[in-house]
Design brief:
Blueprint: E1 7-15, H1 21-34, E2 38-44, E3 47-54, H2 56-67, E4 77-82, E5 90-94, E6 114-116, H3 118-125, E7 130-134, H4 138-141, E8 144-146, H5 160-167, E9 175-179, H6 184-195, E10 200-204, H7 207-214, E11 222-224, E12 226-227, E13 234-235, E14 245-246, E15 253-254, H8 279-300
Parallel strand pairs: 2-5, 6-10, 7-9, 9-10
Antiparallel strand pairs: 1-3, 1-4, 2-3, 8-11, 12-13, 14-15
EC number: 1.14.-.-
InterPro entries: Rhodanese-like_dom, Rhodanese-like_dom_sf, TrhO, TRHO_N
Catalytic activity: uridine(34) in tRNA + AH2 + O2 = 5-hydroxyuridine(34) in tRNA + A + H2O
Length: about 300
């Protein structure tokens, strides 16, 4: 299908001081709804974080609207395309943090690590003195990461400070390089690490997605696929669609091998959530699956 016939998915974030963020919610929500936009935008005093989907014209109008605020004039975004919207409605939510570390005093608007371009990243992480850390959650790391990167084995970003306290020492680990999907977690992680006395802290500008977009596969130090928070589930080099699907019950990425497990039931459970699936949730998932199949059948008629 031609790109012009597809919906545009725009992901965006920016750490910027927004003391009036609560007053911004209603006009932002109203404007997005007027344009037929769906998705979620998080607003906090520390900035903005969101993913929205709509027509090319609608997305361009909303981005222009957001950037009309001088504080967001340089707001960057990334785009992908979809045939069907991955969101059912538009939400603008007020939060204490746009990415939850659990330490609101950590403020990337005050200090942040050194940005490293995708083109410079390989040289940095190939330095034997550099500790390379994947700041994403465990299930994301398991389907792909950079060579020699440490996996903190966190289930949420809130656990990252504990990992640092128990595994890293600013007097011993002089150079730290971090990365995440799009860059937002690393900005906050680098701010936290600077506050803990780490002197040289680096992070990948634009995240893994920008690296996979710009660095040729033959030069890449990336291994596996990159989990993304939309219907693509995972992407490869060049941001081509990956091989994973998403468990509709727990949201984990599942491989072709996972689907051969007796614990896998389409739309109901997978090997990662089978043991924790209650009977009530099983019934709810079965009903969701039934509705999904009915909707699909109507579309195909």
């Amino acid at each position: 299908m031609k790109q012009e016939n597809l919906l545009v998915v725009a992901t965006l974030y920016k750490f910027v001081s927004l003391p009036d963020f609560a007053e911004m919610r209603d006009p932002w929500l109203s404007y997005c709804q007027q344009q037929g936009i769906k998705g979620t935008i998080l607003l906090a005093q520390e900035g903005i974080n969101g993913t929205i989907v709509g027509s090319r014209q609608a997305i361009d109008a909303v981005l222009e609207f957001l950037r009309s605020d001088p504080r967001l004039a340089d707001l960057e975004h990334k785009e992908s395309y979809t045939e069907t919207p991955p969101f059912e409605r538009m939400k603008v939510r007020l939060k204490s943090e746009i990415v939850t570390l659990g330490l609101p005093e950590v403020d990337p608007n005050q200090q942040v690590g050194n940005y490293v371009s995708p083109q410079e990243w390989n040289e940095l992480i190939s330095d034997p003195e550099v500790i390379v850390i994947d700041t994403r959650n465990d299930y994301e790391v398991n389907i792909g990461t950079f060579k020699k990167a440490q996996n903190p084995q966190t289930h949420s970003f809130r656990e990252f400070p504990d990992y640092v306290r128990h595994n890293l020492d600013p007097s011993k680990h002089k150079k730290i390089a971090m990365f995440c999907t799009g860059g937002i977690r690393c900005e906050k992680a680098s701010s936290y690490m600077l506050s803990q006395g780490f002197a040289e802290v680096y992070h990948l500008k634009g995240g893994i997605l920008k690296y996979l977009e710009e660095v040729p596969a033959q030069e890449s130090l990336w291994e596996g696929e990159c989990f993304v928070f939309d219907e693509r589930v995972a992407v490869r080099h060049g941001l081509e669609n990956g091989s994973y699907e998403m468990c509709q019950s727990c949201g984990r990425p599942i491989s072709a091998v996972d689907k051969t497990s007796p614990q896998y039931e389409a739309g109901i459970s997978c090997p990662y959530c089978f043991d924790s699936l209650t009977e009530d949730k099983r019934v709810r998932q079965q009903e969701k699956r039934r509705q999904f199949l009915l909707k699909s059948n109507r579309k195909n008629k």
